[in-house]
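Predicting structure from sequence has reshaped protein science. With that in mind, we have picked out one protein's residues alongside their backbone shape tokens:
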Amino acid sequence: MLLCLTANHRNASFDLLEKLSFGAHAAAGTLVESTEFVSGAVVLATCNRFEAYLEIDEPLTAASAVAVEATVVAMSEASGVTPESVRDSVSVLHGDDVVQHLFAVSSGLESVVIGEDEISGQVRRALEQAREAGTTSSGLEKLFQRASTTSRAVKASTAVGTAGRSLVRLALELASSRIADWSGVRVLMIGTGSYAGASMAALRDHGADDVTVFSPSGRAAKFALSRGAAYTTDLVSAIENADVIVTCTTVETPVVTPDLITGESPKLIIDLGLPRNVDPAVARVDGVDVLDLETISLHAPLEELRATDDARSLVGEAALAFTAAKAEQTIAPAVVALRAHVFGILDAEIERARHRGDTSPETEAALRHLASVLVHTPSVRARELARAGDAESFVAGLDAVFGLEPAEHTDVAADRRGQATAS
């Protein structure tokens, strides 16, 4: 069974999301190594969401509850947030709802800014990190790979990408209300990761030419030179000389603090970091305006309804196809058992006929065709029942009519009871 614990910009504060992001990936390892029933875990931590995707071996409600509580405790210990705060802030999704949710997240439909580009890459990296840590599972591999395929299809087939804008570009557009000409602005960029690359491209598009890069990790030179920018190792002087400061680094403590703001010229600081790169007290310094993620999200544009509806329709179809294929795999052992039973009887009868000297290739071929016809309709019906979530009816019918109970088939009845109770 699939589970997802999600806290995002709709049900949790940015402060809490910051803290949860600290130990997110370490918590995934703890879950897989020490938690009964959890066979895989992938953690997605972005600037506006924390999500733990789990695959558990037992489809029972008790196992789901154990896995959920274990995740709450692991995240609490890794982030320093109390278990009560984690429980109050996360929503829990089960089974097919997890598929629909991840496909929508990966396609940018659950982001602060609808259709943003960064999230699909973040979803892929979450899976890669789980692989490196050894916490993924076959079920989660298939789920995340299909999510990436779906996001590419949404981007190629709908206009949802134009319905929203990346947080970086939205932030610069908001800043443009007070900066008429970016070509004359001295910009300091703090950070050298992929988000910093997107920020640099957006700054260039707005006409910013005077950009200096600082990196807390010491990687400013390589990043800046590859993009035709200057770099510095003197943060104090760089802040003093800058008109606009853009922060997008992943360090766990604030890089810009009130004591570093020494100049008298007004400054605009755009904080795109998670956790925050700018101490909240900086916003109280005279002459300083701070745009952080929470402020930016309040100005996210309204969805372009048609484009978003088209994208959600495509996501829904992809989720249904994924869950249908998974359901058919669940019923496959029962269908195999039926075919083995029917063709086993057929082979035995043909062998007895041969011993009696009654051999006819034409008759054998006709009998095998008849057996194929007889099992065709039940096989089709099995897939239909599986897609409808009623696979246990087929398994029960096999037991009632033929006395067959496939040893390898998933306990679909228990799975359904567990989901019904959880809902």
Observations:
- Residues 208 and 334 are 64 Å apart (CA to CA).
